[in-house]
Amino acid sequence: MFELRCGRRRHFPDELQKRRTVVSWCFHNDELRDLLTSYQSNTIRTTKYTLLSFIPKNLFEQLHRVANVYFIFLAVLNFVPVVEAFEPEIGVVPILLVLLVTAAKDFWEDFRRGRSDYVVNRRMCTVYCSKQREYVDCCWKDVRVGDFVRLSCNDIIPADMLLLHSSDPRGVCYIETANLDGETNLKQRQVVSKMEGVDFVPEDFHWRIECENPNNNLCRFRGYMESPSGARVGVHNSNLLLRSCTVRNSASVVGIVVYAGHETKAMMNNSGPRYKRSLLERRLNTDVLWCVLLLVVMCLSAAIGHGLWLKQLKDPVFQVDGETSPLLAAFYVFWTMIIVLQVLIPISLYVSIEIVKLGQIYFIHNDLDLYNEHMDSRIQCRALNITEDLGQVQYVFSDKTGTLTENKMVFRRCSISGVEYPHYDNGRRLELYTGEKEEGQRCSLTPRSGSRRKSLSCRSISCNRSSVSLDTLTAQSEEEEEEQLSYASQHQPSAFSSHMAKEVVPDVELVSKLSWLCYPDSTVDHSGAKASSSLELAFITDFFLALAICNSVVVSSPNQSLNVLPQPQTPVRSLEDIKQMFQRLNLPVPLKGSPLSLTSKLFTQGKTGSLSVPAAGDAAHSPNPNNCSLNVDEETNPPAEEDFPHLMFDEAEAGDGEATVLFEAESPDEAALVYAAQAYHVTLRGRYADSLLVELPTGGAVPVPLLHVLPFDSNRKRMSVVVRHPLSGQVVVYTKGADSVLMELTRSPTALQLAPDVYSQIRSQTQKHLNSYARKGLRTLCIATKTMEEEEYEVWLKTQLLAESSIENREELLLRAALALETNLTLLGATGILDRLQEEVSETIEALQRADVKVWILTGDKQETAINIAFACKLLCPSDQLLTANCEDKESCAVLLQDFLCLITNGPEVSDTEVPRAHSAPTGTAGSVLVIDGLTLEWALQPELQKDFLELSKQCKAVICCRSTPLQKSQVVRLVRDKLNVMTLAVGDGANDVSMIQVADVGVGISGQEGMQAVMSSDFAISRFKHLRKLLLVHGHWCYTRLTNMTLYFIYKNVMYVNLLFWFQFFCGFSGSVMSNAWVLILFNLIFTSVPPLIYGVLDQDTPPHILMAYPELYRSVRAPKAYDPLMFWLNILDAFYQSLVCFFIPYFAYRDSDIAELSFGSPINASALLIILLHQVVESHTLTWIHGLVFVLSAGSYLAFVLLISVLCVTGSPPTNPLGVETLQMSQPSFYLVCTLTTVAALLPRLLFRVLKNSGLKSRSPDSHWSCERDGPSGEDSSGPVLS
């Protein structure tokens, strides 16, 4: 069915290799067709081995580990007769066992990958065959670059394809990218321009595609299509269907493959698990080097001792090699001792640590307290080897939106043409929504126990300097609202479409003004009211039209089948009817020259210099600066709703449409604004490739030609749409974005027909409203517009098309085009969106501060908004001193940083209302908080000012970075991590947090409302910020203490046992002889004492979880170097030396004058060593369970069973000695048990005494209540450590 092309690879011109050229297999150009064969096939292979390459390749990879090379070297060295320590075959067993176990694990993992590849490669799809001239079924692995692939609804895309045809008459296609980035909201893709509305015939496709070479950037695709006539059409990311995505809401689509197999973006982003190197491992390397030095010293001592012994030996009674000089014999003994004492190097410790970490991850993963029942998600541990770093965190860098807050945006207030509309009824609705669930908890500092613990502290809203809205302080789960969803909604959910976001209650005053559009003949009490409405109506209508269309929202219906295309509804009123309504209201429909897109002539009637409504009830909404100052805390009684006319539709016209519209938004901000516009009956009904269907307040659904969409980016901080206005026919630009940017761009609008002083008042009043919204913790956006002349638009269009068709510097050219368009805008108004604080955020931050963990907020929001949220989450207290840094240049920034340092150094006076320091950060300067904006941060991050910035930050309780870009976030984290040499943790939920998460030592992603980019880039993924509390204070504490204690124990037992062999050298002429059976020597650390340390490292709990949650200060006790420092290491080594001396010399003196043989002498020593090592762990363990008991019994039992079996069955072994009957004889004598008991007690007595005194000291220094807390402590956490089954 498909042609097989083989032979030598042809050489193609350089210009064809710098970029990718794609044509169809129907193209009549042999050179270009042959070029397609040079591209990778669609076969994927994620396995590392084949059957033939497995053994050599796996062995080669294992030899990259120094530990394996070390043991192989010793095994080979043991085959040299002059340095042989024991039978060579026995010396091979340890390394052979390690290699086989590792190889088996690698084989199983690779087998699973191969099985997955087999399934994926044999999935079926429909591909056009040029020979048969029809679409045929084929496997994914047979798809090639240049093939036409036809997909149906719910099909998975087999390769990266350029969309050429869609059955949707609008030329659009919807895809779900959940398999790629975890996002379930639909993404819209559109057919390449010039291919829309054309009957696609594969044989007639003769375009040549030039695009960039394969890369892993999911958000970028650059290229163009060139027709045989030379005409070019730009192609971009919205035309690309990515492999692994799923086609939705489209009956069929056709695309041409541009990237296949491992060159697809999905495969190039498949990097597998994240691996990092923990701080403990880096410190462990130092300890291993000390062990190496100790081994060398012991071996040199033995070599020197053997040389001296041979030199002084006179008339030996036993056979000695007299031909070898003492110097050479000492050299041989050095290497013999290296073999004998090989276990002193704790190389196997690395393997044990990896096993322990897997066990720790299992218990973290199955902790019920870290499970979100509402989202049905548990914590994900994506980095497998840095669990102990969770116990070393010193700085936490947190995003705000979606991390500290819900990121479930709700439209709260708006300001249009300088008039503020507070939406009192909407505010009451939000309070009622949460009031029922918050009743009884609102003033409680101690949350109740249970699977959901929520609280709201009254302290957080009693700040003297902040009027914090209750809406911003707490958020509860929405399970009640979700239970009310219908069955259809549950199966076809709409992103960011909670009932709270959708049910916006309109402002009665705004409804009254909009009603003049529908009912211009209504009787009014004041003649000026009509004129005022006429004057403001252009702003209001344009404002809500911008909210409805300036977005990338996908419109769908829950009752619509996935395979049935949505059909646009017939407008209730025609376009002519709508124009007549404007004329009846004396609002002429503009034809040209309109500065405000809807009706330029509106302002010809309104040049009275004032926009205020003469009605007495409207005085509060006047844009006059003297009358329009917004008092956000004033509880006014708004006019009764029945006093105003409403926007009324006929019942047949209204409800059904709105009830069936679903909005699929890429961000919650967009959804909130679209639902707000819908509340005022400006509803986005449909989105097409080149137009939008919008229903206006008059009841008419009109098409709005869509010319361009300039998406949001972090550089511009705004997005724009270019449309042709349905009434005026003019080109209009609608822009929404950050007020810090748009307020500057709207300073001098083009062709403004308003009086300059009136427009200046509008901007001034809007800025006051923005500041007020920010103080109340609302997210702010500005809305602006601009009308373009046709000549101006044509000039800009050429620049835009050139940028879209460019491959090199495409992003830069598009940015320049966007900046050229978004100038001289006219400000329409602003919005305030409520983003509620997540539950238990304040408790979590307070606990982290008590644990001496500094919390920084890095956000792109306004300074006032960030400060308000910081107060709400208790990062700031009323008595804290705010150090606000807002500078325009580098010099002023340097001076300000120095001033702040001097202020802190001189010790500012503390207010009498300061909160107790018991719940604050432990530093003396806990009352200083630095607030710095993005521009000042840019100066502070420069090398000349970094030192002052860091010094100031160290002295502050917290730092809040506002208006910061994603790049600045990562730069701040890197600066603190590298310069202060501290352990950093970054937590965020969106794509703008990815760089910060990747730079930090520990990256935590929150699976929230902004997709899964942060989660996929993180080391740990949680669903709520509150989970960070237990993750650090409990699991971080446990993981670090477990691993450090296990590491010290592991080194102790190795040193202790090796010293027994070393002490014996003093009685055998340092010859390298041992008093143990070779098998026992090899298996003692490999089998008999290997499992107890693992159980110790996985299950030990030095402190109960409810104590750790109730007293975060305990987190500081495990922070390096307190818990694991050189002193602890050397004390551990000294204890091992002491125990080895006792374990060796008590049996020595007990059997000193007897005729006992060396193996019989070694029997009680080995038994005592095993008991001492096992009971030493019992003394050190804080937790003992039946698992510990079972492991101890099995370890001791396996040793006894093995030595007895050797004693009974082994006729030859360890020549020239014979183990036959040795152990059975020794264990039959009472002296054996007496010696073992006395040795064990004497060896462990100092350790036991030290532990008793240490525990007694801890209790005496701690209040009785510290350790006698109730099971349900202040944290509300259950001490049982629940685990998911």
From TrEMBL:
EC number, UniProt record: 7.6.2.1
Species, as recorded: Knipowitschia caucasica (Caucasian dwarf goby)
Which cofactors are named for this entry?
Answer: Mg(2+)
Which keywords does the record carry? ATP-binding, Endoplasmic reticulum, Magnesium, Membrane, Metal-binding, Nucleotide-binding, Translocase, Transmembrane, Transmembrane helix
Q: Does the keyword Cell membrane apply?
A: no
Give the first-level EC class, as a single word: translocase
List every stretch annotated Disordered: 472-492, 613-640, 1258-1285
Residue ranges of the P-type ATPase N-terminal domain? 35-88
- Which segments show compositional bias classed as Basic and acidic residues? 1261-1274
Where mainly found?
A: endoplasmic reticulum
* GO MF: ATP binding; ATP hydrolysis activity; flippase activity; magnesium ion binding
Q: Name one GO biological process term.
A: phospholipid translocation
- Compartments reported by the entry: Endoplasmic reticulum membrane; Membrane
Indicate what this protein is called per its UniProt record: Phospholipid-transporting ATPase
Q: TM segments?
A: 288-309, 329-351, 1055-1072, 1078-1099, 1129-1150, 1156-1175, 1187-1211, 1231-1250
Q: Would the keyword Endoplasmic reticulum turn up in this protein's UniProt record?
A: yes
In this protein, the active site sits at 399
Its record classes its membrane topology as:
Multi-pass membrane protein
Q: Which annotated residues bind Mg(2+)?
A: 399, 401, 989, 993
P-type ATPase C-terminal domain: which residues?
A: 1015-1255
Q: Which residues bind ATP?
A: 399-401, 670, 712, 736, 779, 859-861, 963, 969, 992-993
Which Gene Ontology CC terms are recorded? endoplasmic reticulum membrane; plasma membrane
Sequence similarity: Belongs to the cation transport ATPase (P-type) (TC 3.A.3) family. Type IV subfamily.
Q: Which reaction does it catalyse?
A: a beta-D-glucosyl-(1<->1')-N-acylsphing-4-enine(out) + ATP + H2O = a beta-D-glucosyl-(1<->1')-N-acylsphing-4-enine(in) + ADP + phosphate + H(+); ATP + H2O + phospholipidSide 1 = ADP + phosphate + phospholipidSide 2
